[in-house]
Amino acid sequence: MAVVETECIVLRSYDLADADKIALLLTADHGIVRAVAKGAKRLRSKFGGSLEPLSRLKASYFKKETRELVDLDRAEIIESAFDLVSEPEILTRFSYLTDILISLVPAEDPDPAMFRMMNACIETVRNRPEAIDSVSLYFEAWLLRLAGFFPSWDECSICKLELGDGADAQVTAEFQLICDRCRRSSAGEMLTANDRATVARSRRQSPEAFSSERVAADSLARLSSIFKRMIARATGFERVDRALQAGVQGLR
Ligand SMILES: [Zn+2]
Q: What number is the average pLDDT over the span 102-121?
């Protein structure tokens, strides 16, 4: 049996039989793990309020080679997410983001970049809750990228020539891009040069820097719709971003 000490973000926690809970943790260097927290439902549990979604913890757990579930031993809060989860819109949005992360990332697949990305996104929204829409877009783009589902958008998928910075491009059914010269019909979804610049910016900037520059509403809507379809294609089913739906209904 191995003892693992790691930083992690609580993705979800569920009640288990008796006084126990199961917590789904995105760890800094061991990927997503499922941990049993014995006695966590008791009033005076050593886990206290540490297993709330989006809390960042310093945790240690025991792992047996033959078992998927690990036993949580200690969980010390580095940053509580109480402020975040008490905002319904932010809670709903992160619940969607957590959902797509869990469905795209295989369990126990170490990816420190995924941990850093999620952590930086949470921090950005903590400092500037109004950045939630652009941070969500950033999260979707990076999740797709890190999970290996983002096609190269630098070149035309037909002639393989690099797409210029100022060029619009057509999006294929496989979410690849086609340049103006190779485009056969004027029908079909288009990405503007501006949309492409936004995606390029997400690739090189932190979520903090990315969301401090305004993303045009039409770009945000177009890209977010494409990313959601990419995620649906990758996972095999569609997920509903309830916060986005509520926002759209609010505009009507
Ligand atoms: Zn081309």
A: 94
